[in-house]
Amino acid sequence: MVEVENKVTKKKPVTRKRTTAKKKTVAGKKTTRKKTTVSNAQIAAASRHALTERLKEDLAATKLALKQAKLVANEELKLAKKAAQDEAAVIKEQLNAALKREKELMKISEKKIKKMLITGEHWEKKQLVKIRKAIEQAISKIKKK
């Protein structure tokens, strides 16, 4: 409080106490509790639930895609296995045909070898006969002289 002296003419000075003016507080800043924390919690929960739902949908879509990819891969594997079996069957047939041809060639070769042996034996016998005749003629010529 500030004391102020008022001078009155020829009177005893009287001092009065005056109260000083209070400073006004700035309007709009009240110290009331805000409800934003509750609404922020609700917003966070809602966004968390939305994220969870979106992730569940993504997971379901991914599972479905993987299942379809697995089915496609299994189909391709079955086709590849079938193709490999068909190829193996063709190769087996070719191998069997080649073995059959080789057996036939072996038989033909054996027949030719037998014929050559028989022909060789006949030639040998003829040569022996010619040699005997030649020897007999030579001996008879020697005896005649």
Topology summary:
Layout: E1 2-6, E2 14-18, H1 36-144
Antiparallel strand pairs: 1-2
How much helicity do the residues have? over 70%
Number of strands: 2
**What assembly state would you assign to the polypeptide chains in this entry?**
single chain
Helical run tally: 1
Uncertain parts: none
Question: Into how many domains do the coordinates divide?
Answer: 1
User: How much beta, percentage-wise?
Assistant: 5-15%
What is the average of the pLDDT values?
86
Largest sheet: 2 strands, antiparallel
Rounded to the nearest angstrom, the radius of gyration is: 64 Å
Strand order of the largest sheet: 1-2
CA-based shape: rod-shaped
Order of helices and strands: EEH
The end-to-end distance, rounded to whole angstroms, is: 192 Å
Structural class: mainly alpha
